[in-house]
Amino acid sequence: MSERPTPPRRPSGSGPDGQRPRAFSKGKGFGSKGFGGKGGGSGRERPAARPFGEWPGDVAILYGMHSVIEALRNPRRKIRRLLATENAAKRLAEEGIIARPEPEIVRPGEIDRLLEPDAVHQGLFAECDPLPSPSLKDAAQSDLLLVLDQITDPHNVGAIVRSAAALRVGAIITTARHSPSATGVLAKAASGGLEHVPFCFVPNLARALEELKGLGVQVVGLDSEGPADLLDTELRAPLALVLGAEGKGLRQLTRQTCDTLARIDLPGEIVSLNVSNAAVLALHIARRSIGKPAT
């Protein structure tokens, strides 16, 4: 399955599955009780961005300087249409980037009309083919994988993708349902990371984790009630780290399917982390533990 296209328009303030995003919770640690672990409180809900426009089902939308430039540099990414302002086109030329197809020079307002009011496009907009997704078996050839259990906020997932690209994650595994589209807002937040970390969409996460274990992958779930800190947990490659949604954490069946659970202990006065911050911390710990990837 390839990157999923932008979903159809839904009511303002709804999440990717049509529900309002779950609020953050407070407490200590990272995991099943939210990224604050044991502790009450729900915080304020923040509505997700509305989808922009109506696009054919097989089109991925990219905008912003980093997202579009990385796509232009990626030989696997087929760009169907490229819009650029005069200044943006000049910057592409100055950086020696060959734009294929040739950009259509437009005024900034023409791109504004295609996007959400608060979208920062920096004069670049592209309609692309989605990137191909690896099979689970192919993804398991990587030394480090990331599994997302119903994390629905595209800003958070985009930030996670960016961190995953920086730490050489081989693939991000998630379900086709209850996950944001690998396009638009997510792509902008990923800042080009989508071109380096493929998404592997699976129909059932628990079965996918069982398959990974059968392929020799160690599956570690991040959970506030884990028996040990991730720093003190024995990790080996190939490794898959599993993160759950803010407010909910890992689902029960996901927790039961992991080889082991681990928590992240925080020493400071602020004892909760946003999921994207928790992801980069966990990935950094994992990368240092299992070593640098083979080049």
Structural overview:
Helix 6 links the parallel strand 6 and strand 7 (199-202). Helix 5 (154-166) runs parallel beside helix 6 and helix 5 runs parallel beside helix 9. The chain contains 9 helices and 10 strands. It has 2 domains: 60-128, no CATH class; 136-290, SPOUT methyltransferase, trefoil knot domain (Alpha/beta knot), CATH 3.40.1280.10. It is α/β, with parallel strands linked by helices and 295 residues long. It is 27% helix and 16% strand. A 6-stranded parallel β-sheet has the order 7-6-5-9-8-10, with helices on both faces. Strands 1-4-2-3 form a 4-stranded mixed β-sheet. Mean pLDDT is 81; it is low at 1-55. 48% of the residues are buried. Keywords: Methyltransferase, Transferase.
Describe what is shown at a glance.
With 295 residues, the chain is of the alpha/beta class. 27% of the residues lie in helices and 16% in strands.
Keywords for this structure?
295 residues, alpha/beta, Alpha/beta knot, 2 domains, six-stranded parallel beta sheet, four-stranded mixed beta sheet, disordered N terminus, transferase, RNA methyltransferase
CATH homologous superfamily title of the largest domain: SPOUT methyltransferase, trefoil knot domain
Q: Domains counted in the coordinates: how many?
A: 2
Provide the structure class.
Answer: alpha/beta
- Helical content class: 25-40%
Biggest sheet strand order reads: 7-6-5-9-8-10
Order of helices and strands: EHEHEHEHEHEHEHEEHEH
Q: What is the number of helical segments per DSSP (H or I, 4+ residues)?
A: 9
Residue share in β-strands: 15-25%
Supply Rg. 19 Å
Query: What is the straight-line distance between the termini?
Result: 27 Å
Tell me the number of strands: 10
CATH structural architecture of the largest domain: 3-Layer(aba) Sandwich
Low-confidence stretches: 1-55
CATH topology of the largest domain: Alpha/beta knot
